[in-house]
Request: fold
Amino acid sequence: MTDDPDTPAAPEGGGPGADDLVAEIGRLEDDARVRVAAAGSADELRAVESDVLGKRSGFNGLRKRLGGLDAESRRTVGKVLHAATEAVGAAVIERRAVLEAAQRTEQLIDERLDLTEVLPGRPAGHLHLVTQAIQELEDVFVGMGFTVAEGPEVETDWNNFGALNFPPGHPARDMYDTLYVDFGGPGSTVLRTHTSPVQVRVMTGGPPPYYSVMPGRVFRSDTADATHMPVFHQIEGLVVDRDITFADLAGTIDAFTKAYFGGDFTSRLRPSYFPFTEPSAEFDIQRPDGTWLELGGCGMVHPDVLRNCGIDPDEWQGFAFGFGIDRLAAARHGVDDLRDLFTNDIRFLTQF
Ligand code: DAH
Reply:
């Protein structure tokens, strides 16, 4: 065997030479890089890192074997080993950065709170057809200079009848028309049969002039059918001032008709009778197609009614009107049975 200085001496004990170790380092590095790249989470990466770079790693095993090499080979292999572990360490750091960025993105998506998002599934209700009609009527009258007044649904017999000139034997006071309440003396308290008693409350509540509308619920001892309900709604109007004439009444009715129904509607008054107005009239409105709709009653406030409320009829005059709201709302929306308005069937009500 020649002693050739160019051929590295085989290590003692017949172990692998420097070239074999370098090749093994290369395989370990390749394997480590593959495992680092395959780590799918920070935890997994930590386990891989300890496997490929830690105390029991292949690299560490090799490091222990460096001692068996000659100085030259030890330096060469040592450099390669150092470079390989540095490179794998750098790959771990890089992979960790990628995984952390991905995790952050995922977290941001998970915790996203979009304040502009419109969430469906919380349907808001809306006002009942009759309430809508009351509010529209109030708007129109307020636009004409009226204020809105209210009174109680349970009234005294005096306010509902007496002050309004209904004589004691008047048929309206009959048990069959009026719902009496078991309160106070017999027949002294009623569920109001119309909104007219609110006129009395307005007139006794302060000095004239008055320009008021009074919407509200009223009660009659009626059996429900397509055009009648025992509980329904009216709106009352009252104007008391100096020098108020029947022409003011007719003009107000017509101005209201045009404001509420439209400019192509007109109105007319027909002679009628009410105990609390003199003269009295019924008023109808004419649709653009020429047909008439009977709306309500009206008239000049009877002097006795003014007197009953402590107002001097020689100084003050006025007119009043009143009409039902339910039939009006029903007619406007093509509802042909009033009972449908009050059975609270949501499929019906949501149409309006
Ligand atoms: N209160 C009457 C009713 O329920 C309607 C009415 C007629 C009201 C004439 C008025 C009026 O103010 O002047 O039938």
Q: What stands out?
A: The pocket of 3,4-dihydroxyphenylalanine is lined by residues 194, 196, 236, 274, 277, 296-299, 320-322 (CB under 6 Å). The radius of gyration is 48 Å.
